[in-house]
Amino acid sequence: MKTHTFYVIGMHCKACVTLTENELREIPNIFNVKVSLRRRSVEIIGDFGDKTTENIAQELSEVLRPHGYALSLVKQRRPVKWSEFTAAIPIALAFIALFIALQEFGIVNLVTISNVTYGTAFIVGLIASVSTCMAVVGGLVLSISASFAKGDNKTKPQILFHIGRLVSFLILGGIIGILGSAFQLNTMGIFILSLSVAIILLLLGINLLDIFPWAEKLQPALPSSLGRYVQGLKNINHIFTPLLVGAATFFMPCGFTQSMQIYTLTTGSFWTGALTMFFFALGTLPVLALLSFGSLAIRDKTKMGIFLKTAGLIVIFFGVFNLINSLVVAGIMSPILNF
Interhelix angle for 118-128 vs 270-294, to 10°? Predict the structure, then answer.
C-alpha cells in the first residue's frame, strides 16, 4: 500500500467531494480515499504495483472524466473568466427586470412576503439542475445509464429513477410540511427559517459565479457519510434499484434542495409542502431527463460558464429578495416596491 496525493481539476463544491470519493472508492485496488475541498486535493491509499505516479493520475482521471473531473500532480490555478460576465450580466438583468415587472403589475406573483409558490419552486429546480445538484444527481444518472447499458431495456431504469425522484419529493416534502405544523412556528421562527433560506441562496449564487474560492467551504451540505450511502445504492444491480436511488436523492447534498426543504417546514401543511418539493423536483427533470436519455454532456458545453454565472446572479437576486422579505415580515423594514 502506498499513499499518493493528487490535485482535483473541476471540483468546486461539497457535492463534488462526495462524488469524487465514491467513484474512487469503487476501484478494487484502492484502500482509502480522502478528498479536501479547501486544497482541491485527494489523498489515495492503494496498491498500484510498479505504476508511476503519472500513470496512476492518468488512469484515475479516466474514471472521473465522465463526471467532469481530472487528477493532476500539480495544483492548477483557476483563472476567473471575467469575459463570461459580459453576456451573463445583461441576461440576468433582463430576467430580474421581467420578474420585477411581473411583481409590480401583479401579472403573476412568483414570490410573496410569506409564501413561495409552486412557480418559484419550479424555477429554483431549473437552476439547481445545472449547478450543485448536477454534480451528484447527474453523476448518479450517468452511473445508472452505464450499469444498465447492456440490458435489453435501457429506458426502463431511467424512467424508474425519475419516477422515484418525483414521488419521494412529493411524499417526503409533505412529511416535512407536517413536521412544520407540529412545531407551530411563530413569527420569529418563520423569520429565522426564511433568513436561513436567504443565506443559503446567497452562498449558492456566490459559488455559481466561481470567483470567490473562500465561499465554497461555507456552502451547506448534508453529512458526507449519508451522501456516500446514497451513492452506494447504485451498486445494487436490481431492476428496481433506479427507483430506490431516485427516491434517495431527496437526501443528497444539494444546497438548493436543502433551502427548499427549510422553506417547506414553514408551510405547516402536508399538501403545500408536498407540492412545493414536487414542483422543485419537476424543475430539475428537463435537464436530468436529457442527461438520461440523450447523454447530455452538460459540463462540455462551451456556453455553460456563461449560463452558470447568469444563474449565479439570478440566485443572488433571489437571496437578496428573500432577505428583504424576511426583514419585512419581522417588522425591521418597510416593503420595497410591490413585493
Answer: 30
- Asked whether the predicted pLDDT for residue 295 surpasses 50, the reply is no
- What does the block give as the cell for 170? 412529493
pLDDT digits (tens, 9 = 90+) for 204-234: 778 778 787 666 666 655 555 555 555 555 5
Whether 62 maps to a domain, the answer reads: yes
Same domain, 130 and 222: yes
> Which residues have CB under 8 Å from 208's CB, separation 6+?
131, 308, 309, 311, 312, 315
How many angstroms separate the Cα of 195 from the Cα of each of 11, 329, 337?
A: 28, 11, 20
B/e letters for 178-214, b = 16+ CB within 10 Å, e = fewer, are eebbeeebeeeebbebbbbbbbbbbbbbbbbbbeeee
pTM over 0.85: no
Question: How many structural domains comprise the chain?
Answer: 2
Q: Are residues 95 and 239 in the same domain?
A: yes
Is-contact 9 72, C-beta < 8 A?
yes
Provide the residue range defining the domain that includes 7: 2-72
Examine residue 132 and state whether it is found in any structural domain, yes or no: yes
Q: Are residues 20 and 139 in the same domain?
A: no
Is 301 strand, coil or helix?
Answer: coil
pLDDT band (50, 70, 90) for residue 60? very high
Contact 304, 187 (CB under 8 A): no
Residues 74 and 5 sit within 8 Å (Cβ to Cβ)? no
Tell me, yes or no, whether 335 lies in a domain.
Answer: no
Instruction: Tell me whether residue 98 is in a domain.
Output: yes
Same domain, 8 and 144: no
